[in-house]
Amino acid sequence: GGVVETVLIPMGDDEYTQCISSQVGCALACSFCYTGTLGLSRHLTPGEMEDQVLLGRQNLPENARLSHIVYMGMGEPLHNFDNVVESIRRISDPDGIGLAQRRITVSTSGLVPAIKKLGEALNVNLAISLNAADDETRNEIMPVNKRYNLETLIQTLREYPLPPRRKMTMEYVLLGGVNDRPEDAKRLKTLLRGLPVRVNLIPWNPFQGPGYDRPKESAVRAFQRTLKGAGF
Q1: Which position among 68, 95, 126, 206 has the lowest Cβ density within 10 Å, counted as fewest Cβ atoms?
Q2: DSSP at 159
């Protein structure tokens, strides 16, 4: 009776990335996230996550293929750790869907103990929903930061067993006047220095309620230029 979403994202050359959900709703209540307003109904089972991939493959255009999977839909994947790990093992099994773990990315808001466990259990890619480069701002928009602050999170990422030639993804949702200013870009540049990362800048997609503004295009481009100038 619950509802989740899964999305096929065209990547060019007849390849698609699929974004799948790991929970019905989410317990972490990030203030800029619509799913966070729903609360958590329940975890998805490994089979329900695998079913999303099977459904996605059935709906691919002719001659297209599913090249990557990202656990970035509804839910906090590492809050549903055991089921997510089992689903990845099934999806990557050569006798199953057979998608290599290096083509699978798990995103987290920063559940530090589970990040360490993930690196020990699987060979997947890691993405962090970061969204701020100082604790004051991150505490305001992401309550999880009050438990695992930026210093703790970044130290964990420095110790993460990332395979050679791979990078982590830092997801950064830009909120107008909140975390998109020149000083925010400079703080982010300093925070991520020395980490093997790429940064995914995401202008906020508005919904009614939290009172944020979508950032101005000029602010987004200036933020991007600062990071590119630092080699990101």
Answers
A1: 95
A2: T
